[in-house]
Amino acid sequence: MRLLRRLDKFFKKQPDVCKFSLDYLDKIDTPLKENFQKEKFDSSRLLKDKYTEKLIFSPKHNYIGMIATDKNEKKCLCVYNFNAQQSYEIQNVYNAVWSGLDEYLVYTKQKEGLIQPYQVYLHKVGSNEKDLLIFETKDDCFVVDVSITKNNKFILIHKNTRNSNEICLVDANSPWETPVKLNLSERGEYYIESYKKGDFQVSRTDFNRWETIYAENPVDDAELFNLQEGHLMLTVKINAYPRLVHVNMETLEKIIVQTPDVPSKITSGVNIDHEASSYNFTWESPICPPVEMNYNFITKEVSNLNDVKEIINAKIETKSVFNGDVEIPVTIIKPLEKSLKGALLNAYGCYGVPLNADFKIQNAHLLQNGMSIALAHIRGGGDKGRSWHQSAVTKNKINSAVSLDLIKENKICNENTLCGIGVSAGGFTFGALHNLHPFLFRCLILRCPFLDPHAMLMDEKHSLSTLDYSEFGDPTRNIKDKENLKELSPLLNIPIVCRGFKPNAQKDINLLVTASLNDKRVDFKCAEEWVLKKRASLKSLSKSSKVETFVHWLWKENDSHADMSSISNKALENTFLLDKLNY
């Protein structure tokens, strides 16, 4: 209880760095801000027991659309009429954009009982007519999405897998017309923002003619952030860390934007005006909360650099270690003026998602209590670009595992004080590693872990199985993929008699596994079965090595996959770590 009270006190003292703001409404002369003030607009009043994910405004600001989700990850679109002060909902809507006309919007619809959207509809506000189906994919390996160009001329319909992208265009002022397919994509080919054969290029079209306006070869780790009149903003990753680059489209001059030279995360801000002379973005680091910045295209200067404040007394180190001949970046955040009492290793390595060096308030609490944080940017993530992800998919998925050599070479703490955390697909990596090296971690946390990809991918009715074929392989049609998944599955490879090399000072092994019955992405039963088998396996280890083993199992009934990463659950994890390390 003392630890819980101390943790609660810590969180209450921290600055509010995650406020939602509509400040940009001050910059545009519309009735929108007046409507908000007049109505004292509150989405929670209209969407009870739902979380509002996105707000979209009609061109003349007479209507607002709200994408919301409930505890079952079932989404809906709520449309509110400011003039009539009325609202209604459309169910199973994953995303939506307004067309160029005030009374028409376009939305994507989910399959009943599944997560992925597969249809695109046109809806007229307030109409009793049936919504018009304008696009559909019948292949379960694809999902659809919609967006609108910055000049509001075209609606883009995206047909995606995890590795490819096709785009159709619809005239935003005639949204009922048949979408025009730009081209059929090959694996790994993107349009508008293209990664074809290692090239990066940005193209534009008037429906009849494509023109490449910028290209660079090779840029495997570039990401388009913003394209404004005469200016291109993109990020290029240097040793897994993003740097913001400005390209003058007339002179093709490239400028690396001045930001603090430490591992960080850069996020695009609100950039509504296509002809603006500046670009808004957010910068943050593991010890600095997010700071809104503005880059001026003319002066080449960045505003608010002086607002970067290190609110955590810690230092950031970067190391490169080698897994075979592959160089793997590692970010280490170490507390200052504190004796190092342990370290928490974090890794993900899946779906091309990078492990960002961003600000996390729960890490601040651990740092202030003498624990260091290590981020291993392993293969399978997007930390070093597309090829980094592709080097750890399907038959090479084993490459995403955190190797024992990588951790030892870092020497981030003593052998008996190393802790680890794997979240969702990151739980796959840590679960497999713990089967091989049960003494590696003094404490290991697995939050809603993905522990049996073999069983999930064999079930074609699972909400994400077909989408994950490109990541893990297709065991339903490929016998080699099936055998590979059996060998990799943490659940199927728990040793009956657990063995391993015990460090002399280690007295216990502590595992905390959390999951939810309501999780639509990760199977609750797999986590429960892993815990039961792990307890039996570690019991034999406890007898042979005289090391106490504890496997704590915490499950919830109504939390969604995202809810399991709430600040209260993270506070519980911190308490677990500090308690087991005898703080």
SSE order and pairing:
Layout: H1 2-13, H2 32-39, H3 43-46, E1 51-57, E2 63-69, E3 75-81, E4 86-91, E5 93-98, E6 104-110, E7 117-124, E8 132-136, E9 143-148, E10 154-160, E11 165-171, E12 180-181, E13 193-194, E14 200-205, E15 210-216, E16 222-228, E17 231-238, E18 241-248, E19 254-256, E20 265-268, E21 278-285, E22 288-296, E23 314-323, E24 326-335, E25 342-347, H4 361-368, E26 371-376, H5 386-390, H6 404-410, E27 418-423, H7 425-436, E28 443-447, H8 453-458, H9 469-472, H10 479-488, E29 508-516, H11 524-545, E30 548-556, H12 567-580
Parallel strand pairs: 25-26, 25-27, 27-28, 28-29, 29-30
Antiparallel strand pairs: 1-2, 2-3, 3-4, 5-6, 6-7, 7-8, 9-10, 10-11, 11-12, 13-14, 14-15, 16-17, 17-18, 18-19, 20-21, 21-22, 23-24, 24-26
Helix pairs in contact: 1-12
Organism: Rozella allomycis (strain CSF55)
Keywords: Hydrolase, Protease, Serine protease
Enzyme class: hydrolase
What does this entry look like structurally?
This protein has 583 residues and is an alpha+beta fold. It has 2 domains: 2-236, Prolyl oligopeptidase, N-terminal domain (Methylamine Dehydrogenase, Chain H, 7 Propeller), CATH 2.130.10; 314-452 and 489-580, Rossmann fold. 19% of the residues lie in helices and 34% in strands. The chain is built from 12 helices and 30 strands. An 8-stranded mixed β-sheet has the order 23-24-26-25-27-28-29-30, sandwiched between helices. It has a 4-stranded antiparallel β-sheet with strand order 1-2-3-4. β10 and β11 form a beta hairpin. α1 (2-13) crosses α12 (567-580). The chain is globular and about 75 Å long. The relative contact order is 0.08. The model is unreliable at 1-29 and 184-199 (pLDDT under 50). Its EC number is 3.4.21.-. Residues 359-533 form the Peptidase S9 prolyl oligopeptidase catalytic domain. Keywords: Hydrolase, Protease, Serine protease.
